[in-house]
Every structure is written in C-alpha cells, then in structure tokens.
Task: structure prediction
Amino acid sequence: MNYSVITITREFGSGGRTIAKKLADDLGFKYYDYELIQQVAKESGFAESFVEEFGEESQNTGFFAYLTNTWGTSVSDQLYLAERKVILELAEQGNCVIVGRCADYILEERTDTLNVFIYADMEFKKDRIITLYGEREESIEKRIIDKDKRRKAHYKYYTDRNWNRAANYHISLDSGKLGVEKCVEIIESIVK
Result:
C-alpha cells in the first residue's frame, strides 16, 4: 500500500504531535498542525487563536455545546466545515501528515491515507507535560482528562464514532510503552 497522507490523532500528552512532526521530517512530508490552523483561519475569517482553541475540542459536552445561530449553523459547525475543506485540499496535494481535527474521519474514503491513534498511560502523559511544558503536577491529571474529554465530545459530535476506538484507525500505538522514536519507526515502516 502506498500512503501519501498520514493522520495522527492523539491523547493529550502522549507525544502524538512530536511523533507527527518527526515522521513528516523523516519522510520529507509536509506537516500540518499549526499550519492547518493558519490556513483555516485565513479561509474562514476566524481568528487563529479561536481556531486553535476550538478546532478540535468541544468546550461544553452537554446539550448547549452546539446551539445554532439564526442562520441554522453553529459557530462550531462553521469552524468544522472550514477545517474539513482545508483538510480535503491538503490531502489532495499529498505527502503530508495531518494532526487531529477529525482528519481520519474526513479522509476515510481515501485509500492513500494511514490513520494513526497515539495514546499512553496517565503517568507517561503527566511526566511528559511536566518535562516539556514545565507545568505543575497538581492540576495536570485533571487538565489531561478535561482536554481529552472535550476532544472526545467534539469527535463524537462530528463523526458519530468514539474517538479512542481502535477500529477507527489503521494502527494504534502506546507511546508510553514503545517510546516516541519507536512509534515513528513503526509508522515509517508501514508507509515505506
């Protein structure tokens, strides 16, 4: 199988973004994470900070999370549609790694796309966040749980699938057990 698009969905703190970046560098692929945010902001008119904050997370997980405006679509729906459009355009260009934003679902019809889910145990994620971001230990576990809860709600709303269900992806890797470098090696071995 020849893969020209790789999507990386990840738990917060699992190293998924690092894996995606290293993978793109090693393969000579374009890397879309913050760059995707910039493109969506440019095409949609939303501020980059808004796209970054709300582009893959529901801020509320209840009934009121996706209320519609007077035109019949919510701001969340407008943002999702803008992201979807950009993701489809980037995939058409090929040779890219796309992080998050329901890209695995949006590109599910493409036969040249490899969908990857990166996860890890709580201790690995907490240690990684403390080490990389210098955060304090007291609130990290709650932050991880809350952030992933919002990602799950967002993903469920737009895909009607469970975000961390292995069947949604071609491969799921435990970065805490395998390590970031080994995850990159495994994905590269599948792509090459």
